[in-house]
Design a protein that fits this description.
11 helices; 331 residues; seven-stranded antiparallel sheet
């Protein structure tokens, strides 16, 4: 997929000609069609759907969101603090709560057939252990999965730890996103690319952009930049807006957009696909819209307006995914 390319193309006739040609190519590409799955890789769908009904407090979507946040559905994931497997169990927790769900005689934290049902069982246990804690029961359950039930009891709800607060908020938001089953049509991909290309030159605004277009943003980016006085887009605000014009609703953040899109092998990338950057699925920090020939449209960073750039202009390309229509609340 890699091709020699300059870092970016400025606004002007060259950009307009390139976009026009690529939009036409997208419209003529009839291979953009049905998605095989949403958020959950095909090989894990049945496991998540079944385990997500373990108790009334959880659902398949909630379980999918949790596993996406924990490992990005990587069954071999290992964290710096020793958490292991697709559901990121610490060894001590796995010893006490891991189950041999596939009945092969081995409780294997790295086997999704054991780890996914164990994750659901443990979530249900956390729901029971925190049922008397004030506040939102789902938030308390998720906080207990992350920080332990004792901490939830100690603080009377979600502990005031930034990691846990972000964890609970992110999973809750993803769990509420209805997922569908169809990828963009060629016309929808072309519409999204056209909408994004019309915004070339629009300022970057941290937190800016929604389904209606550019908007003032919020404070503050990791480097302290505020979008509160700037009308424009951040990276995921631009992709959200572009696909809204095509009738496809995306969630707000880049990580959430990846979670509800269909992963695509690099050799199968097509105009309209989303290009994501980060070190893991849970740490995705940037997204752009692929337009072909190794280029994307992006809202890159504070001080740099919406532009066309090489997909290799950032060093941490994580993956490619195809957005889907979100119509059903089931996975």
């Amino acid at each position: 997929m890699r091709a020699a390319a300059t870092a970016y193309i400025g606004v002007g006739a060259t950009a307009a000609v390139l976009v026009a040609g690529l939009v036409q190519a997208a419209a003529e590409d009839t291979a953009i069609g049905q998605a095989l799955g949403v958020a959950v890789p095909t090989e894990y769908r049945e496991l998540v759907e079944d385990a997500g009904q373990t108790c009334p407090e959880i659902s398949p979507n909630l379980l999918a969101a949790l596993i996406q946040q924990e490992s990005g559905f990587n069954p071999r994931a290992e964290s710096e603090i020793g958490a292991q497997g697709i559901a990121q169990f610490k060894p001590s927790t796995w010893e006490s709560d891991g189950i041999d769900a596939n009945r092969d005689g081995v409780r294997d934290v790295f086997d999704p057939e054991d780890a996914i049902p164990s994750s659901a069982k443990y979530l249900c246990k956390m729901a029971e252990e925190t049922k008397d804690v004030p506040g939102d029961r789902q938030e308390n359950m998720l906080a207990a999965y992350n920080a332990g039930a004792a901490k939830v009891h100690k603080y009377g709800g979600v502990p005031p730890y930034k990691e846990t607060e972000t964890y609970v908020k992110s999973i809750g938001a993803m769990a509420e996103i209805p997922t569908g089953e169809t990828a963009p049509t060629t016309d929808q991909a072309a519409t999204a690319i056209n909408a994004a290309s019309d915004e070339i030159g629009t300022p970057y605004s941290w937190g800016g952009g929604n389904a209606n277009g550019a908007s003032t943003g919020t404070c503050c980016s990791p480097n302290g930049s505020s979008g509160a006085s700037i009308r424009g887009f951040d990276c995921s605000g631009l992709t959200l807006y572009a696909y809204a014009q095509a009738g496809i609703n995306l969630p707000r953040t880049a990580a959430q957009q990846y979670a509800v899109s269909e992963p695509i092998e690099p050799g199968k990338i097509r105009p309209g696909d989303l290009v994501f950057y980060g070190s893991s699925a849970a740490s995705i920090h940037h997204v752009g819209i692929y337009i072909g020939s190794g280029y994307m449209i992006e809202a890159p960073r504070p001080g740099v307006a919406v532009r066309i750039a090489s997909i290799y202009s950032m060093h941490d390309l994580y993956g490619i995914a195809r957005p889907v229509s979100h119509e059903s609340k089931e996975i």
